[in-house]
């Protein structure tokens, strides 16, 4: 089975009846991008840009950042999509040169887009650097931890200014869906974005109020919890009403058993860890779109994560 999976890993992702599902990768840098393409990734669905900012004493300059974003873009070439997430720090990801206030609840404090809007200079520098990759690839910019339309509009206004200054107009803009309000309000976000990407790691944490790294809660903090699945369904419904696409870049996308459920809910892009590219593509090829939709409806009717896991184990192909 492994050999067969490897053989088909270079084919485009699709269901057994030919519905296209883009299988792309989560990466940190250009070296990861090269490895992902070799493994059959059709592009990058999440470049975690914070790795450029990590383990250093000062923020990376525009030139330093641009060099890395452009190197990633060159690895992908002009036909593959690249989704660059703007800096996602705070909470579990502190930076020495960006002193954030000591918080009682850092996961509920200054994180993701909130930090960027609090330090617009940092955001502008990063956006200018990202935009330099626009001529090289199918560039997408994604904002993390967005909770309200005000945040999206503020970030987009800054982006629009930097685009006007740089002349790079051809960029898609999206948000991560990892805060419950973004899922609930997906139909209202949809007219103002080009795409959504669901971060099931944080979405699970915030829907269930369970720390994503808590050892004793690891089993319960499962992205297949019916409460999380309902949020994913809501995001897909809200996006579909406005013709916008939905991806999943959290860990759930790399779960073979979850892939047909996500596709059945309306997800058309799965951004997975590089080692999961082959197995996720192989799984998709064993399900038709109608079967994915039926499976998704069955799962949405269940009440506990234990029931969901049991059903998917029984249906596994
Ligand atoms: C997520 O929250 O699911 C996600 C993809 O972002 P990160 O894991 O980097 O927080
Ligand atoms: Mg996250």
UniProtKB/TrEMBL annotation:
Enumerate the subcellular locations listed in this protein's record, separating them with semicolons.
Answer: Cytoplasm
Q: What family name appears in the similarity comment?
A: Belongs to the PEP-utilizing enzyme family.
Query: What name goes with this protein?
Result: phosphoenolpyruvate--protein phosphotransferase
Species of origin reads: Aquitalea magnusonii
């Amino acid at each position: 089975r492994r050999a067969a999976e490897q053989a088909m890993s270079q084919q485009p992702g699709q269901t057994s009846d030919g519905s296209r599902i883009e299988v792309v990768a989560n990466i940190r840098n250009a070296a990861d991008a090269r490895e992902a393409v070799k493994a059959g990734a059709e592009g990058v669905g999440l470049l975690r840009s914070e790795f450029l900012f990590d383990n250093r004493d000062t923020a990376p300059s525009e030139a330093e950042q641009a060099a890395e974003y452009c190197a990633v873009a060159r690895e992908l070439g002009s036909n593959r999509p690249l989704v660059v997430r703007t800096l996602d720090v705070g909470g579990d990801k502190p930076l020495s040169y960006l002193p954030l206030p000591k918080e009682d609840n850092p996961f509920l404090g200054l994180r993701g887009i909130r930090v960027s809007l609090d330090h617009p200079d940092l955001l502008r520098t990063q956006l200018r650097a990202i935009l330099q990759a626009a001529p090289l690839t199918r560039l997408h910019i994604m904002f993390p931890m967005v909770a309200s339309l005000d945040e999206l509009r503020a970030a987009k206004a800054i982006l629009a200014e930097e685009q006007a200054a740089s002349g790079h107009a051809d960029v898609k803009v999206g948000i991560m869906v990892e805060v419950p309000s973004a899922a609930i309000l997906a139909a209202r976000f949809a007219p103002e974005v080009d795409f959504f990407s669901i971060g099931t790691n944080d979405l699970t944490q915030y829907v269930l109020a369970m720390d994503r790294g808590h050892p004793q809660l690891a089993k319960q903090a499962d992205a297949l919890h019916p409460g999380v699945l309902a949020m994913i369904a809501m995001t897909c419904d809200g996006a579909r009403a406005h013709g916008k696409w939905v991806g999943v870049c959290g860990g759930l996308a790399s779960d073979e058993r979850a892939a047909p459920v996500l596709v059945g809910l309306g997800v058309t892009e799965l951004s997975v860890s590089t080692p999961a590219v082959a197995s996720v593509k192989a799984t998709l090829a064993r399900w038709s779109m109608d079967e994915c939709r039926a499976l998704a409806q069955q799962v949405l009717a269940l009440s506990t994560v234990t029931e969901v896991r049991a059903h998917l184990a029984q249906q596994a192909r």
